[in-house]
Amino acid sequence: MATKSDGPSNSKYITMVSSDGFEFVVIREASLISPTIKAMLRNNFSEAKTGRCVFPDISGLVLEKVVEYLYYYHKNVNVPYVPDMEIPVELCLVLLEAADYFQLDSVTVGTAFRSMGDTLKF
Amino acid sequence: MASRANKIRPIRRPIMNREASEFEPCWNLLRDALSDIHSKNAGRLSFEQLYRASYKIVLRKKGEVLYERVKSFEEDWFREHIMPLITKLITNNIVNMTLIQHAGTSASERRQTGERFLRGIRDAWEDHNMSMNMIADILMYLDRSYTIESKKPSIFAATIGLFRNHILRDTIPSVAEQLEEDFMVFDILNAVVVDLINMERDGDIVDRNLIRKITSMLEDLYETDEEIENQKLYLLVFEPRYLQASLIYYKKECEKLLREADASTWLRHAQRRLKEEQDRCGTTVSILTAYKVAKVVEKELVEAKLDEFLAMEGSGLKAMIDNDRLEDLAILYQLISRVDGTMAPLKNALQSRVMDLGLEIEKMVRNTDFSVAGAGQADADEAGDGADKSKMQPLNTAAQQTAAAIKWVDEVLQLKDKFDNFWSNCFNRDLVLQSAVTKSFSDFINAFNRSSEYVSLFIDDNIKRGAKVKTDAEVDVVLDKAIILLRYLSDRDLFERYYQKHLARRLLHNKSEIDTEKDMVSRMKSEMGNHFTTKFEGMFKDIELSRDLGDNYRDHIRQLGDVDTTKIDLGIHVLTTNNWPPEVMGRGDGGRVDCIYPPAIKRLQDSFYKFYLKDRSGRVLTWVSSAGSADIKCTFPKIAGKESGPLSKERRYELNVSTYGMILLMLFNDVGENESLSFGEIQGKTSIPPLDLMRILASLSIAPKARVLLKEPASKSVKPTDKFSFNAQFVSKTIKIKAPTISSINKVEGDEERKATEKKNDETRAHIIDAAIVRIMKQRKTLSHTKLTTEVITQLQSRFKPDVSLIKRRVEDLLYREYLERIDGEPATYQYVA
């Protein structure tokens, strides 16, 4: 559980860091869509204390897409009939892997029931 | 939702050869982390790193190995670090206290030891629970893929379950040996909790939060790792024990209360206990148990000895009702409505109490001596008449009975008020109870065979008094109550008969306000329907028409300028035979006797008859001398030899007497000063029926207030051998004198009269039943005997309760008279003969 102290543990934003050093500042609420990040932040581990999540196995390119999806989901969660997210074909495989890592293949978007896994399936 | 079937698996990379070498470092990392988590050092660990480690292991298909390793790690950890703590908690003390139940340990000692034990368990649990949550989080990916695919319990369930397997279900060998019986830590835990709660019930203060922590722990643990919702340890193991312990506790408490306390204490105690248990479930135990434990308390504390408490002398239901203990009754109602939706115990007790009280009233009325007229409340208000009545021997018993009747109704109404009060203030206006009480009221009222007559007499009394002393509002209330009683009566036709008789007397003698009368009848109309009041309304109409007729007649006479007859002012009631009771109409048993009117009266009658026939030719008027009254102006001469006092001058009085009295007195106009008439002579000259004559003579020659006749010999009763003469020395303080008459007072019937009334009523009933049978058969053509009987009863219910044997007799009569016939081959079935 995030302790109720000042500072990063209950800030509105968190920082996600890629293997190649890109940092993404993300609204906490959007990031919690991923069960992985959610678990990361709710316990007493270092990520929860610093608000900084480092992903040494994920490149900036991929993490950017992941963050884009988190926002896409966050914005459209209650909107029916949302257009699909743009996914460059060459990123598909790595994104699939990342979706699995972030456990985003079972979350839903609005009534369209789109998940990232689905979006990536052509 | 993207279904599981669509799940995309990670691609297999050509890295298989590396997997073996990668597993061990990952596991080492995780193992160290597990230790850190248990030691609360998680802050320096990176979740991502750990998550990734387990992620990698699972991706490399080593999930099973990881699962097992974590499990065995936890088991080891548990054995090495937690079990010793718990074992330390299980002291001989606590074992003795809970499992062997040695006497001799004080409550506070027990509480302290128990709470220490619970605190230990709680701390161990909280640590374990937190660690397991964190470990489950870092092993999330394992749960997501391996555990689901292999259909094993989640890693959390498997590890949290260690607490159950290794602590709660642990047996302590040393103790087991000592007791020669297996037991588990769980048993101690349950016993401690139950013991603490019992202490709280006894008034001690215990650590509620601690107990709540323990019970919520049990709510979080399941019987097996499958974590089936209804197999929580709380529900499976703790709750039954808790309920059992509560049952024993309350059973004992109830027995103690029954021995030592009264019903009133018991009620309050039970109410308090129920509330306490409810609160306890919220703060100490679990809300899941609230309903069940409430049931236990209801059953053991309320229901088990309910009858005994209700029957308690001096505080049971009888006392509550008799002493109007509203609060007790209200609590009782609440408690009983919890245990029994049908309210049967309360209902039955109320019913029998109503019955008893009802019968008591009847007995009381029968046994009370109403002969002390002044003392009886009912009589006190009738001051004028009452005083005379009590002095006059022949009226005495009748007046007493009337007072009894009024007393009875008053008491019944009071009883009704009492129970209404209970009903609205204590019983939440419960419909079941209302109908039950109503039924009992109606039962005892109808069981009393004079109720119809009494109710009518009661109305009579109040309407008459309403004209004198009561305000409209008061009368209103009383009449409303009378209507309520009326609702209970099943023999409404009998009531109708009495009411008709009493109303007739009131109307003819101007004893009441016509508005009040009409008000009452219109209430009856709305309560019992039109047919019930037609006769009464006809009577009102007759009275009104008669008033107009009288006025018209007087105008008519004035126009004629007939000076002679104006000396007698005629007020007349022309009554329609059917609307009025036969007694009044002179259709009584003996048939009507025409008496001989004095010539002046006779002239008046003829003149009126002539006037009456002008507009209504062909009608017959019969003079009913028994129902009328007359105001006579009498002059008493100056008595010779008296120089002072009232006797010294001539005295004029206005005497109000019945028609018979008038005829009688006019007779003495022609009698000389010192002459007298014998009883026989009077009867011969007037042909007034002997019984009536005797009464009127008694009222004019015995009662001191109106003794205008002298009787020879001067005894207290009139005999056919007596002689009568004019009392020239009569003196009265008032100018207007009312001769007391028996006929104008409505009183309870004597037994003879009653039998007559009932017989007449039965005759009428027979006709009504005949009509009903014919009506039904005409419609149905054929009908079996039972069905016919039922239909007759339903049809006539609003009027009276027909006797089945009477119906049978009527059917037989109708068969004989060939309205109906039997059908061949079908026994007890009738056919209508058109």
UniProtKB/TrEMBL annotation, chain A:
Keyword flag Cell membrane: no
Family, as annotated: Belongs to the SKP1 family.
InterPro entries: ELC1, SKP1-like, SKP1/BTB/POZ_sf, Skp1_comp_POZ
GO cellular component, one term: nucleus
GO biological process: ubiquitin-dependent protein catabolic process
Subcellular location: Nucleus
Keyword Nucleus: yes
SUPFAM superfamilies: POZ domain
Pfam entry (one): Skp1_POZ
Function: Essential component of the SCF (SKP1-CUL1-F-box protein) E3 ubiquitin ligase complexes, which mediate the ubiquitination and subsequent proteasomal degradation of target proteins. Controls sulfur metabolite repression, probably by mediating the inactivation or degradation of the metR transcription factor.
Lineage: superkingdom: Eukaryota
The protein's name: Elongin-C
Location of the SKP1 component POZ domain: 13-75
Keywords: Nucleus
Automatic annotation (TrEMBL), chain B:
InterPro entries: Cullin (IPR045093), Cullin-like_AB (IPR059120), Cullin_homology (IPR016158), Cullin_homology_sf (IPR036317), Cullin_N (IPR001373), Cullin_neddylation_domain (IPR019559), Cullin_repeat-like_dom_sf (IPR016159), WH-like_DNA-bd_sf (IPR036388)
Family that this chain belongs to: Belongs to the cullin family.
Signal peptide interval: none
Any one GO biological process: ubiquitin-dependent protein catabolic process
The keyword Ubl conjugation is assigned to this record: yes
Entry protein name: Cullin
Keywords for the protein's UniProt record, in alphabetical order: Isopeptide bond, Ubl conjugation
GO molecular function, one term: ubiquitin protein ligase binding
Pfam families linked: Cullin, Cullin_AB, Cullin_Nedd8
Domain Cullin family profile stretches: 450-701
SUPFAM superfamilies linked: Cullin homology domain, Cullin repeat-like, Winged helix' DNA-binding domain
